[in-house]
């Protein structure tokens, strides 16, 4: 039965650990752990079994076919060792594959064709360097993939084999001519059988053959959305079943497969979207196609898919550098979702921030004109801030939203909302005052709420800090602990803008009223220190951007993963005895336990996404520093002289460079 075969052999989370799986696991462990003693005899057994059961490859009976399948299954289980370049068996691998494995591509038994495809799915990372062999693999896999009839397992394993070889030049060249019908076949398989691995295959095809698939992008998106909705409707119906209707917990339907398949489909839609980064019109059409999926997710509170839903529109808005009418409708749906009494939006705010950030970056002009959309964002913040037992990570996310709202709306942020943002941030700082230098991520993010408001309305900020007896704490930690250690461009820009506002737009009388008169002397030196660090921070961000944009390659040498030293089995028993003896003696001797729970955070723990837009991206900090200081020199020369006279020689050099830009 094809369905039974798939459940039995392809679902790794199947809890039914049968005798054959146990035997296979034992064999694999033996060959890995005691290779010197077991590799040769195991291969000899496999070869003898195949030779004794195969006469004519196209004419073997069912009994022999089952024996052959078992032998190939054993071979597949240990293939990772055999294909390592330092393996003594690597040189014989090609001949073995040609003579004992690949002929079964044409076997009349589907389970043998399936097993050959499964073996091929493990060969993709090997440099076979043999055009004839690659041709055999390609022709065999494609033939299995395109089989019609009751042969879903053959099709599925062939799809995985295609995925394994998709990076090979030979496969790319030959697949490029048939990529559209291949993708259509994958869609049909995905519709017939719910399996997340198929979504992964489709995603790789989209990434590898984006140019060839672009003319069919919208149709492909529509098909994937329909497949997702089919799964999502089933999942939603199951979630609404009263568990009390079942006799035991085992009777409750396990929908893990459908959920994983649905997530895989959503990931594929994101890959399709990203392949159209240079076509704004098509991105808009893809948004329209994806909207029914997003609408179903948000209207039915399907929190398992919030991340992918938000990631899709995060990418679409980033690609267009604007907010489309469809995206604004998504914000409305998020608002409706948030207004529900049992809303999960506050618990998943980190996922929603992927998208909310772009509304504030690319939609800030519309937000300043549209109070309706602003109220949605305020309500999201207020509901999240009202949660009980909020930890530091959750507070950090709340404060990211409030500071970005402050920067986006500037003077148009309502006074009551500004007071709420400041009150929440200052209150948390006071509660966590002893840990501000240790909990850097929380501390800097909470401080940034105050700093962002200082850029817009320094008087309100200073009043709020003094009103809660937090003025001294804030400036002490900010000046001595945070400013000297900033490494993100965002923190540097934000702080420079706030310092400039304190220096140039806050009167000396007001600063004296808050006992900050002497602080004026420090402001310009602090700005120059930050500006000296800014090019380095910018370079680090650019390097991250290049790293994320390039193909990932961790440089791990898989071929040397296994050590085939002749002494690989020696000494293991002695080591085990030594460990056991130390355990018996209570860990005395040289055994030492190290406390690895170092919870101190560092400034490089602060995230700065190199591929995401920032509200401060358009800020030319050099022009603003230069213009602000020139203006101060003309309007208040005494204050200007006071702060500039304290520059060190290095700081004077930075100052001169900025003024000569």
From TrEMBL:
- The record's principal subcellular location, in a coarse class, is cytoplasm
Entry's localization field? Cytoplasm
Q: Which Gene3D superfamilies match?
A: Leucine-rich Repeat Variant
The record's GO CC annotations read:
cytosol; nuclear envelope
Q: Which keywords accompany this UniProt record?
A: Cytoplasm, Protein transport, Transport
- Cited InterPro entries: ARM-like, ARM-type_fold
User: What GO biological process terms are annotated to this protein in UniProt?
Assistant: protein import into nucleus
Q: Name the chain's protein.
A: Karyopherin
């Amino acid at each position: 039965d094809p369905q039974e075969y798939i459940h039995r052999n392809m679902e790794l989370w199947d809890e039914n650990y049968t005798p054959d799986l146990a035997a296979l696991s034992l064999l694999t462990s033996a060959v890995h752990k005691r290779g010197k003693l077991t590799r040769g005899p195991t291969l000899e057994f496999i070869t003898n079994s195949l030779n004794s059961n195969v006469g004519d490859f196209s004419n073997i009976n069912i009994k022999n076919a089952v024996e052959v399948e078992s032998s190939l299954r054993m071979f597949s289980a240990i293939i990772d060792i055999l294909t390592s370049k330092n393996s003594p068996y690597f040189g014989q691998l090609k001949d073995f594959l040609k003579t004992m494995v690949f002929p079964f591509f044409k076997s009349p038994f589907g389970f043998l064709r399936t097993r050959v495809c499964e073996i091929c799915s493990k060969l993709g990372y090997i440099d076979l360097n043999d055009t004839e062999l690659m041709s055999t693999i390609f022709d065999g896999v494609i033939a299995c993939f395109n089989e019609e009839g009751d042969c879903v397992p053959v099709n599925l394993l062939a799809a995985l084999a295609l995925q394994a070889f998709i990076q090979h030049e030979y496969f790319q060249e030959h697949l490029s001519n048939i990529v559209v019908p291949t993708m259509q076949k994958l869609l049909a398989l995905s519709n017939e059988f719910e399996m997340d691995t198929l979504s992964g295959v489709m995603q790789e095809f989209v990434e590898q053959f984006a140019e060839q698939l672009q003319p069919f992008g919208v149709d492909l998106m529509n098909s994937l959305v329909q497949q997702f909705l089919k799964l999502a409707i089933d999942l939603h119906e199951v979630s609404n079943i009263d568990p009390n209707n079942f006799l035991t917990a085992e009777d409750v339907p396990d929908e893990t497969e459908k959920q994983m398949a649905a997530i895989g489909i959503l990931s594929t839609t994101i890959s399709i979207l990203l392949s159209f980064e240079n076509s704004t019109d098509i991105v808009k059409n893809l948004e329209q196609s994806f909207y029914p999926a997003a609408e179903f997710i948000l209207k039915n509170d399907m929190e398992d898919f919030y991340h992918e839903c938000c990631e899709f529109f995060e990418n679409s808005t980033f690609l267009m550098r604007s907010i489309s009418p469809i995206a604004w409708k998504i914000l409305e749906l998020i608002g409706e979702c948030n207004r529900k009494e049992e809303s999960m939006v506050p618990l998943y705010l980190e996922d929603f921030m992927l998208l909310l950030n772009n509304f504030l970056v690319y939609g800030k002009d519309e937000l300043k004109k549209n109070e309706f959309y602003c109220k949605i964002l305020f309500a999201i913040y207020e509901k999240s801030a009202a949660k009980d037992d909020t930890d530091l990570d959750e507070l950090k996310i709340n404060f990211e939203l409030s500071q970005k709202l402050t920067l986006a709306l500037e003077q148009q942020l309502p006074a009551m909302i500004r007071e709420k943002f400041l009150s929440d941030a200052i209150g948390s700082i006071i509660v966590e005052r002893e840990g501000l230098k240790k909990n850097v991520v929380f501390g800097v993010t909470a401080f940034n709420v105050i700093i962002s408001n200082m850029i817009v309305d320094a008087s309100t900020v200073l009043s709020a800090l003094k009103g809660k007896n937090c003025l001294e704490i804030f400036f002490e930690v900010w000046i001595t602990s945070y400013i000297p250690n900033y490494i993100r461009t965002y923190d540097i820009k934000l702080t420079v803008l706030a310092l400039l506002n304190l220096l140039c737009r806050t009167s000396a009388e007001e600063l004296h009223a808050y006992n900050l008169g002497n602080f004026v002397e420090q402001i310009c030196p602090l700005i120059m220190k930050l500006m000296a660090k800014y090019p380095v921070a910018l370079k680090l961000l650019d390097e991250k951007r290049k790293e994320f944009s390039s193909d990932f390659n961790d440089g791990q040498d898989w071929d040397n993963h296994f050590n085939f030293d002749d002494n690989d089995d020696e000494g293991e028993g002695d080591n085990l005895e030594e460990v056991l003896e130390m355990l018996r003696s209570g860990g005395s001797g040289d055994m030492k336990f190290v406390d690895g729970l170092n919870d101190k955070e560092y400034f490089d723990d602060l995230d700065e996404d190199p591929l995401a837009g920032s509200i401060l991206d358009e800020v030319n900090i050099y022009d603003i520093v230069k213009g602000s200081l020139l203006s101060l020199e003309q309007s208040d020369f005494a204050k200007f002289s006071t702060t500039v006279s304290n520059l060190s020689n290095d700081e004077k050099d930075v100052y001169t460079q900025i003024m000569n830009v």
